[in-house]
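agent> Task received from the user: take the single chain below, predict its 3D structure, and emit structure tokens. No templates, no multimer pairing.
agent> Plan: (1) validate residues, (2) run structure prediction, (3) serialize to tokens, (4) report one or two observations.
agent> Step 1 OK, no nonstandard residues flagged.
tool_call: predict_structure(input=
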Amino acid sequence: MNIAKIATILTLTATLGACSTMDRLANVGQAPALTAINDPTAMAGYQPVRMPMPEPIADTYQANSLYRTSAKGFFKDERAHRIGDIVTVMVTIDDSAQINNQTQRNRASSNSAGMGGIFGVGFTNVIGDSVDPSAAIDFNSGMRDSGTGSVNRKESLETTVAAVVTQVLPNGNLVIEGRQEVRVNFEVRDLIVAGIVRPSDIQANNTIQSSKIAEARISYGGRGQITDVQQSRYGQQVMDAILPF
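)
tool_result: status=success, residues=245
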């Protein structure tokens, strides 16, 4: 990274930091604003899900019959199955991991060479008796690496969030996306759930477990005064990104 890039990063960081500072100063004494409810498909960066799909099978009806080949029941199913329907996601995360690792590596080498004479003339006669000919050329090297690492993590989250069906894939699977914001005093907690579900995994009470969501994207975080205190300042983040040591 050259000096020009570093200067550009510092300039952009200072500009963004100034904008953020002005926004925070303008909102002193006020609680964080909640995000407006928007159509997820109309938001910037939204992309429809594209997955490998089988060939669609057309529905067929038998003569004098109320059933169709793709129907799963005689009575109407109140579970979510169309774009705009709502399904309740039961988010349950109980994850823990503990890993210990230790690595140690040593290597040492030594090489030496000497010259007893040059063109019949004694080497010591040319440069004096104070030099040891056997040590005229000497190489020594050594390397030692030692590293330790450990991971001790435990995460637990149990909550519910209502998600909206945003897309129906050709094979009948549903793409869902839901967002929940809760403000307590001056802190806003965000919960985002998105992914692909099978209609058959949705329970009769229109709920589904988060473990049944394929390509699940679950985010739980916050913004506000407490989150600001826990985050490093912009200058420290920039220095952490560009310093090589």
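agent> Step 4: summary for the user.
Residues 34 and 161 are 17 Å apart (CA to CA).
agent> Done.
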